[in-house]
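anyone seen this seq b4? input:
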Amino acid sequence: MGSKVMREEEAKSIAVEWGNTKRIFGFENVGAQYVNINITEYAPGTEHKIHFHTGQEEVIYVLDGEGITRTDEGDRRIGPGAFVFIPADTRHSTINILKDKPMRAIIIKSPPKSE
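predicted toks r here
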């Protein structure tokens, strides 16, 4: 398979507890073996509860909105232009602190795993 170009509006939106997510690239749609890339919209005032990914690193890049990334080390404010690196097996959560606006972020995970 050659390269693939995907526009956000082409990706299927999937409802999750904290908002919606769209798989941009992954094994399911392009056969990616080393990475998953999603765009996630955290609904106003929601939290992706504390969880961890066994053997999987995660990078969050905030596009719009304001939030908090929480780990056992504490809370850090995040907003547009912020990158968050979460090592594998690290307990973490992402919280949209705005009550009137979604927070949008690109989520990159490696290696890919089904979610």
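The chain has a mean pLDDT of 95. Residues 12-110 form a domain with the Jelly Rolls fold (CATH 2.60.120.10). kinda curious what u guys think
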